[in-house]
Amino acid sequence: LAIQNKLKNIQDLKAQDLSLVSTSRHGIEPEDKMVGLENEFEMMQDQLARGAKELEVVSIVGMGGIGKTTLANKIYSDPFIMSHFGIRAKATVSQEYCARYVLLRLLSSISGKIEEFHEHQDDDQLADRLQKLLKCGRYLVVIDDIWTREAWDGIKRCFPDCNNGSRILMTTRNVEVAECASSGKTPYHMRLMNFDESWSLLYEKVFVKDYFSPEFEQLGKKIALNCGGLPLALVLIAGLLFEIGNSLDEWKSVVKNVSSMVTTEVNVQCK
Question: Do 155 and 49 reside in the same domain of the chain?
């Protein structure tokens, strides 16, 4: 029953739309290593750095917990991308869109700090300031976790087309939003992790940090399989396994219960 309650707590955390980079607030190490997706990373890197001089939007679309934010963050902090784009900014939109919050986040990520005078400006002044800063060079803006076309329509006016190869990288669960924004290009649909990738991620999060007998490793492989290829589920379950330690019965309970939890999550998000 205790394990079922902990798994229920994990499911509640997932329902709060936590990204892989925000799990540290709940005592779980953030996911800073991208497992798999190397080909996808190189493809998107190429799409951002090459091509037309006109401003283009590149979209990553997929269900919650599938790793959109992790991929976008890896691209954003990649040394080649950093050298290619003289100006970089990013903001998370989330389900409840707040234009002012997004504008302030974009401005602070460009300047590296929160400018006090921005707090006293209205939204139009903030948008004007953002436009002027982005006109100073080739820019990459990451708009993470945007949910609606209305949110995109509200923020896109801030991004000038300076005909210098600037790009916007967007992540969303909504295919319609991705297709609307993606400059006529097909959005990239995130895939689920295969078993080898799932096991590699779980192994790194749990087994590298402590010694477990081979019996635990076999249970770990079953858990990796039952997580359904969702990186967020694997990271959260890894935190639970690390917490319960060398209790074989509790690991078996996780094996028994985790599959139904993930299946429910996938079914809900696919409706």
Answer: yes
The contacts of residue 55 (CB under 8 Å, 6+ apart) are 159, 160, 161, 162, 163, 166, 167, 168, 183
For 125, the domain range is 37-189
pLDDT score, position 262: 61
- 18 phi-psi bin (left φ>0, alpha ψ -120 to 50, beta other): beta
Q: Which pLDDT score, from 0 to 100, does residue 263 have?
A: 54
Residues 41 and 175 in one domain: yes
Structure tokens at 262: 């993930």
Q: Which residues of the chain have pLDDT under 70?
A: 1-34, 114, 116-117, 259-271
Residue 238 lies in a domain: yes
Report the domain count for the chain: 2
Q: Closest by alpha carbon to 234, among 79, 82, 29?
A: 29
Q: Which CATH number do you get for residue 240?
A: 1.10.8
Closest by CA position to 155, among listed 177, 137, 175: 177
Virtual torsion, Cα 35, 65, 175, 48, nearest 10 deg: -40
Q: What is the pLDDT of residue 2?
A: 58
User: Is 205 found in the same domain as 155?
Assistant: no
